[in-house]
Amino acid sequence: MKKWLVRISATLAALVLVALVGLMTWEPFFARTAETSHSGKAYAADLGGSQPITYTAEIIRDEFGVPHIHGKTDADVAYGVAIAQAEDDFFTLQDVVAMARGRYGAIAGEEGAQVDYAYHLLDARGTAERHYSKLPADTRALFEAYASGLNDYAATHPGELKLARLFPVNGEDIAAGFALRQPFFFGLGNIIGNLVSGKPLAPEFGPDIPGYPRAAEGQSGYDPTGKQARAFPLPWGEDGALSGSNAFAVTPAKSGGPSVLISNSHQPLEGGVAWYELVVESDEGWHFAGANFPGSPFPFLGHNRHLGWTNTVNRPDMTDVYRLEVDATGTKYKLDGKWLKLEQKTVTLPVKMGPVVLPIRQTIYRSQHGPVIKNDKGYFAIRYGGIDRIDQLDAYYRLNKARNLEEWQAQLARMAIPSTNFIYADEAGNIAYVYNAAIPDRAKGENWRGILNGTDSSLIWDGPVGYECLPKLINPASGWLYNSNNEPWTAAGAGSDLKAADFAPELGIETKQTNRSRRAYRLLSEAGLLDRAALERIKYDTAYAREGYVADLLAALAKLDLRQEPDLARTRDLLLQWDFNADGKGAGDALALLMIKDFMSAEYQNKGLPDAEEKLRAAADHLQSHFGRLDPPMGELLRLRQTPGPFAVDLPLDGGSDTLRASTTWDVDPDGRLALKHGDSFIMWAEWLPGQRVTSRSIQPFGAAITRPHSKHFTDQSRLFVRKQLKPVWFWREDVLANAISRKTVTSRR
Predict the structure, then answer these.
(1) What kind and span of H or E run contains 193?
(2) What's the angle, vertex CA 252, arms to CA 250 and CA 258, rounded to 5?
């Protein structure tokens, strides 16, 4: 009997071992391996023949490690961009590639599986497969070269790989990443998360459907294991949306000298949408200084010789939700009185849990409207601006090479870039603001902010409105333009601003202000000459206007009856006496910093305002617990921290969650300090003096070597950043060579 028990136990142990080994190894073999890119086979006929393509680029790094990449052709440069970016941040690049292939869950577990679900739901791969071959050959050449650079780096650095068989990749893989990520810039993640979990939609969606009420609470997200999840999905910013940026442009007449463009983006300081600074130059005329995100062969903002632009996130109504009528079998839906087949596809999501990767099966639905989500209230289809398009890949490339305002506007007029405001300046003294968005071309009269009747095909729009329909301003009389994630009706000052009544309500343009907008509008309007000193004061302003959610917070605090709690009353009084300035000098600055963030976030994301007493109590407890006082200097609370390694930094910061000097969100460290994770990030200041060449300055919170803690460029910009100083951008080749600390040539492997 004992022998049988031993044999049974051994057999069970062997089966368990086999199962564990299977769960630890299945995913790389299950995943589709993309065709190798550096061979040039995929598009050889278009790109110059059947022989393998060789790329050669020169990478020069300046004193801050910023790469300046030169090549004979634009494709050579794109290859060098991939190599340089991998040298500095291959850690994040692998995450981006995994997202673009539906494998992020094998790296990041449940959070990664949320992204993989979106990858399949939005058909990112299918979108790339349908449209990549239609892109111009020179654009595809960039993406093939960039993929080749990633493949070469992966092949020569196997010890850095996170996931087996993730490489090689090709240009189509990189394109799929664009198709996946772009819709999340205008908040699609919140809608997907709420539909998947059956939670209420955002407040703009009315109570059209019984049991689907208007929302006041926060969003919830998809969880492949069936447990409650966090906001969906996380890798693109706080609560699934990006929450800030400032941009300014000034004419020579108003500045007293140059055309000025100030880019002040507020992005996460690390991760898939953290800015990476670079300068590119080819013998084919591509010459641009700026920044991109991991996974892109070209900059998204910055300047060339002639012109420049920057972006801020806008929030038009870009997504429509339809309730479908589905038959009892769940396989057909009704459209115009006919029953059509509901497309269904089962996908496998890899979900890493400890040492194993679980295969989680999910069914993906699709109708003529677009992706379909099934929950306990029914079947809901979504359709969004830019759906089934990737021509933004070509538009950004052409913007990089635009030579004047006319050429630049021609690219925006394609409506290929789905969203974000553009602020522009050029050497000719022009400035411009375009409320750019591929807003759906909707019929008049329908409640497009409600849940739509999915049985009526007339509500399925096709493509965006025309460029002429968008709000835009060219060379306003005021001489200045700005945007701080505000409505487009305040952009250039009294007498120059656009009027909301002149634009169709079906555009769904937001009608909101931020504190940054209120402050910028006031300061710009009051200024006489907007020279460099005046613009620096405005850009680094740390004050709050007593309006909007700030006024609501103070009013709520004033109404509290705290006669029975004298300690909490003293805390409240400290805020009521606050000077509305997050400059780190006032006694109430630290307390205000802790209080305002959640009120700002609630307003931005259309949530109900938090309970003032509850937040006051929590803020007081935090300060007393960690600092033993209610009024520590704000710089002791708010920190710019980067660890580990010999170049770790821990520096004091100023600015608040919604000030022009932005410290938007943070992680709470064990010592009670707030480590900035999202706020002022890449700042670039470009100037064109009449008759002179463009010059620019820039700064990052940490450094060029984003995930290389043993590099001297890991944090070498931090002290300048904290002191509100900028470093020079070496745009012109003679300046690059004069300030080079390293120089090498890289050539692709055959």
Answers:
(1) helix 188-197
(2) 90
- Please report, for residues 134, 264, 629, 632, 672, the alpha-carbon distance to residue 626 in angstroms, rounded to integers and kept in the order given: 59, 32, 8, 10, 6
Pairing of strands 695-699, 301-303: unpaired
Q: Dihedral, CA atoms, 125, 130, 131, 132, nearest 10 degrees? A: 60
DSSP 464: B
Average pLDDT, the chain: 90
Amino acid at 557: L
Q: At what angle do helices 171-181 and 124-131 cross, to 10 degrees?
A: 130
Strand-pair partners of 656: 662
d(CA 174, CA 170): 7
Burial class of residue 21 (count of CB atoms within 10 Å of its CB; 0-12, 13-18, 19+): exposed
642-651: burial string, b at 16+ Cβ within 10 Å, e else: beeeebebeb
Contacts within 8 Å (CB) and 24+ apart, 529-537 = 529/254, 529/255, 529/256, 530/250, 530/254, 530/255, 530/256, 530/260, 530/479, 530/480, 531/255, 531/256, 531/257, 532/255, 532/260, 535/248, 535/250, 535/255, 535/260, 535/262, 536/724
Dihedral (CA of 235, 236, 240, 246) sign: positive
Segment 157-206, tens digit of pLDDT: 999 999 999 999 999 999 999 999 989 888 898 899 889 888 776 544 43
Phi/psi for 180 (5° steps) reads -75, -45
- For 647, the enclosing helix (H) or strand (E) is none
Q: What is the pLDDT of residues 106-137, one digit of tens each?
A: 999 999 999 999 999 999 999 999 999 999 99
Rounded to 5 degrees, what are φ and ψ at 88? -95, -25
What is the token pair recorded at 182? 């772009």
Residue 307 identity (one-letter amino acid)? L
**Six-digit token string for 532:** 């460099």
Residues 353-373 as b or e (16 or more Cβ within 10 Å = b)? eeebbbebebebbbbebbbbb
Instruction: Please classify residue 32 by burial: count the beta carbons closer than 10 Å to its beta carbon, then call 0-12 exposed, 13-18 middle and 19+ buried.
Output: exposed
For residues 182 and 124, what is the distance between their CA atoms, to the nearest angstrom? Answer: 10
Q: Is 577 helix (H, G, I), strand (E, B) or coil?
A: coil
pTM: 0.91
Q: Quick one: which H or E segment has residue 395?
A: helix 392-400
Q: What is the β-pairing status of strands 356-366 and 371-375?
A: antiparallel
**DSSP assignment letter at 36:** P
Q: Measured between alpha carbons, how far is 436 from 310 in angstroms, rounded to an integer?
A: 12
CA 374 to chain centre: 27
CA-wise closest residue to 380 among 452, 342, 324:
324
Angle at 446 between CA 441 and CA 449, to 5 degrees: 80
Given a contact cutoff of 8 angstroms between Cβ atoms, the answer to whether 302 and 290 are in contact is yes
Residue 345 Cα distances to 30, 342, 372, 633, angstroms:
17, 10, 11, 56
Q: What is residue 299's predicted lDDT score, i.e. its pLDDT? A: 98
Selection from 688, 597, 314 nearest residue 483 by Cα: 314
Q: What 3-state class would DSSP assign to 378? A: strand
Span 492-511, mean pLDDT? 96
The pLDDT, as a whole number, for residue 190 is 85
Residue 548 and residue 512: Cα distance in Å, rounded? 10
pLDDT at 216: 31
Kindly state the tokens that stand for 304: 């060339």
Residue of 616, 521, 512, 501 lying closest to 570 (CA atoms): 616
Q: Are 748 and 38 in contact (CB under 8 A)?
A: yes
Residue 97's nearest CA partner among 182, 55, 34, 186 is: 34
